[in-house]
Amino acid sequence: MSNIAGKAYAMNVITPIPWYKAWLNWLIFKAALLVPNVLNGLLTLSLIHYARWVIIPKGKFPHLDSSQPKEELKYSYMLFFSNFNGSWDQYVDSFTFAIPSGLDLFWKMNVRYPKSVPLTPFHNYIQHNQIDTSHYYNAYPMAASNDVKSAKNVKKALIDFNAASSNKDPDEFLKDYNNLLNNLQHDFGEMSHTPIVSLAALAVKMRHAGAHEKSHNHLR
Amino acid sequence: MTQNLDLTDIQGNIVKAYGSFGFFKARYLFLRVDNGDKGRDFVARITSKVTSAERWSKSSAPSVTTNMAFTYSGLEALELPTASLIGFPEDFVMGMSKRKVILGDDGPSDPEHWDKIWQEESVHIWISINGKSIEDVEERYQWVSKQIDATGGVSLLKGHRGEDAFGNPSDDLPYQDASILYDENGMPSSKEHFGYTDGIGDPVFEGQTNNEKRVIGRGKLTSEGEWVPLATGEFILGHLDEAMEYPHTAPRPDLLSNNATYMVYRKLHQNVGTFNKFLDEQSKVFPGGKELLAAKFSGRWRDNGAPLVHTPDEASKADWDKKFAAADVPTQKKMLTDFTYNEDIEGAKCPVSAHIRRINPRGSLEYGVKGAFNTPGALVDRRRILRRGLPYGKAKDQTSDDGNHGIIFMVLNADINRQFEFVQQQWINYANDFKLGNDKDVLLGNHSAKCPGKVVFEVEPGSGKPPHFVKNIPRLVETRGGDYFFIPSITALKMIAGGIIDPT
Amino acid sequence: MRFMDTLNIFLKPNSSGNATALTTLCPIMNRVVDGESSVDITRERCLRLPIHEESPLAKVPNTYLARLFILDNVFYESLPGGDSVFNFSEITSIFSDKARLGALPQKDQLKSKYLVFSSNFHGDLDAYLRGMWDKWSYDDNGQQRDVRYIWENCVAFDGVTDSSSFISYMKRCQLNSALFFNGSTDDSLQEQLKALYLKQEFSKFAAANQGKSAADLQEAYKAFIDQVQPSNLSGPSWVPGQCEP
């Protein structure tokens, strides 16, 4: 079990929401996408690859067959899935301090949501409703969300430069090359292993052996 | 600044950086408690001389100070009740050597290479003596030794590397001495062994000072662009922190944790020869010359600590120096700390990777998107640390790493994991928050021959100039030992000594 | 914001550009065979999946990040909270204990346990699910496992026999996103991996060739481009799940 795959942390949270507030929350989510600046803080924070909120209205849990009992629930449920860089314990402060009103906006309708400030009740609320991931896969364990975006930038700039300048006279080439480096000066960070945030015995042991989170199966 | 602190209850080293009060010499002692009863008797005796944070007038300032702190195993050995012990946080319980993967203490910094004293798990008590002269320190040390002999329940632990009284190298010294460095004329300086001016810009918290000028550049940045002191609870337990909560790293009962804090003690050896060689080599390919390059590593010029943001080149530095020389002391202090990176988001003046910009990004993590966060310092205010410490040893041969010289680096914070460890792991040895991937701090990063460090020094965007790459950065600083300590209030010291801590 | 973008927020709730979110909750059979429940078996199989390059998801085209876990139940909200500015029950509770108890959060229980699969990927859902059916494989102590091995204990999965029945099965278990936040890019995975490879290699190149004369630099640059082939997605690149530089 691990909520960690390289530089990404998988977060799953399920929280109850009264059915009559669920639709209102749904509208808030849609509005967040429509109204500029609502997601500004989250974008600037730049710790998230992808995240989503899913609302399961009362009685809408998937029901496939008559052999499966039908759910009889009193609440609707909200699921939150996030893929972010750093661990929850480590970065809860960053999320809470950077975008408290954003967090409140998305969870405020949920049963017993305590508001994002003060921090400990919020931290506890999320943790109380958090489900650990059994298998987590990340296509680029060495890349943070920042790196993926930066890489896109580098690729485009390099291809454009190559088309425009690779065959110029050396002096012109150098001038354009220096311009290219100038434009990309924030995109040269090295990508390597994630800092170790879990002191679970196996993770530490593998780090010491120099085998960084090798892909073997350790459940016996 | 409405917070009133119980200065007579708080240990003096929390609120004061003794070095800036003329205490140029320090001696750190580490002891083992062999017997609970006798150990508590010893604690009682030392407590009688423990220096509080009470404000000093010229006439009331002592010539020597004494402070005391404990490791987790020390508190166990002093027989604190389990109900109190289980309230301590995981980081403190584990101790520094077991946190090595978080701290990046690998290779030459691995605990297996630390001074002998750290090889066994028996460091229980830390005592610091800071004096205006070595004689003052020696006298207080003799007094402490007498208490050790008189009580018989504690042992002074040997095993520090350094030079003995006759200048001979030893790996078994009974204490760690530290001292400010002196310039070529024998005058006291605030330099460390790499030649940087140290001890500028420590955070300021509520209740620490009534002088608003001292808060500029050292407190937290508000949305209005003003500087206000940080919440006391970021540095002292039992007080509200930046989350408007009492720090949850506090063990029970309140009287044990109120006015206490956590201290990180780290002995950092400085590879002076490697540093000088590296700086010389790199400055051959750096267009701005050797001193500017050294300044780009740290974010401040080595000679007087001038912040690069205001002195990005020789000309602006010369102007700044002139003003600095003519200014009175409060104005000088302001000149050293009154800046943000808002005018330099790109890092053309002070590189994004510079040491002081990493450990205190001053609102720059909004990346110029004004109002993106609740406050500009949203990602910074929970990561501030108070730094205390002094250099140790002498770098006699500037071309060699050998010998014992470096810095006794001490950090005070309410939550080691959230503050010190976060800064060390995420901002010194990693840089995703700065969008720089795994690039490490030039000066403090755990670079290795296998993965040599690299950083980029940005230039003016659109200038057509390429940024400057500094590559093959060697390990410049190595950890030689240390641990995590709890610095109780004077009330709690008395209660520990009396065996009357009771969380029931 | 353009009209179509606005419309798509409602019409395509699981898309952000070409990035797609898939959330499925597949009920697991309530069955015990030889002392092992279907849930235990499914959970253990998920836990045993090899990670990084060896994860079966590394073989499923265009998977950015994906996860599996089991939703055993929902949680009772025993923590105190401040979910309203004012609760009518705060007044009524003074007079009646029944009102006080009635104001407590209600207890909910799930009747089934669900295998939750949550994936973020590039492109169209049908193509992605077909990729799962066709490409999902890993070595389990010498035995090759396909996608059925994880899902076969789910309710009505015995009706899944080919890619099209797998696609329709997963769609029956699918839930829509209320908000899909894309903090990254929506390029194809190949495109992303190639870009990461180029970023890493070009950083090394730029550092290594600093200060060279124009002619020398240009020569080195051309050799570099020949080697990295920036536009060739099937040329040198990172592999999905690569965890060593």
General description of the model:
The complex is a heterotrimer of chains A (220), B (504) and C (245). Chain A folds into 2 domains: 4-128, no CATH class; 145-183. Chain A is built from 8 helices and 5 strands. Chain A has helices at 19-34, 40-45, 88-98, 100-107, 119-128, 145-165, 170-183, 201-208; strands at 4-5, 8-17, 48-56, 76-85, 135-138. Chain A has a 4-stranded antiparallel β-sheet. In chain A, helix 6 (145-165) runs antiparallel to helix 7. Mean pLDDT of chain A is 88; it is low at 210-220. Chain B is of the alpha+beta class. Chain B has a domain at 272-382 and 422-480. Helices cover 25% and strands 18% of the residues of chain B. Chain B contains 15 helices and 15 strands. Chain B has helices spanning 12-15, 36-47, 72-77, 82-85, 90-94, 100-103, 134-151, 254-257, 272-285, 290-298, 314-326, 329-337, 355-359, 417-428, 490-498, and strands at 25-33, 64-70, 125-131, 154-156, 160-163, 169-173, 176-179, 220-221, 227-228, 261-270, 386-392, 406-413, 453-457, 468-473, 477-487. In chain B, the strands form 5 sheets. In chain B, strands 1, 2, 3, 4 and 7 form a 5-stranded antiparallel β-sheet that branches. A 4-stranded antiparallel β-sheet of chain B has the order 11-12-10-15, with no helix packed on it. A two-stranded antiparallel sheet of chain B has the order 5-6. By secondary structure, chain C is α+β, with helices and mostly antiparallel strands. Chain C folds into 2 domains: 3-74 and 109-175, no CATH class; 187-245, no CATH class. Chain C has helices at 3-11, 38-47, 88-95, 97-102, 125-135, 148-151, 163-172, 189-208, 214-228; strands spanning 15-16, 19-27, 32-33, 36-37, 63-71, 114-122, 138-140, 143-145, 174-175, 177-182. In chain C, the strands form 3 sheets. In chain C, strands 1, 2, 5, 6 and 9 form a 5-stranded antiparallel β-sheet that branches. In chain C, strands 3-4 form a two-stranded antiparallel ribbon. Chain C has a two-stranded antiparallel sheet with strand order 7-8. In chain C, a hairpin with a 2-residue loop joins strand 1 (15-16) and strand 2. The longest helix of chain C is centred in the last third of the chain and has 20 residues, at 189-208. Chain C is extended and about 90 Å long. The two termini of chain C are 40 Å apart. The model of chain C has no long low-confidence stretch (mean pLDDT 92). Chains in contact: A-B, A-C, B-C. At the A-C interface, strand 2, helix 1, strand 3, strand 4 and helix 5 of A face helix 1, strand 2, helix 2, strand 5 and strand 6 of C. Strand 3 of chain A pairs antiparallel with strand 10 (177-182) of chain C.
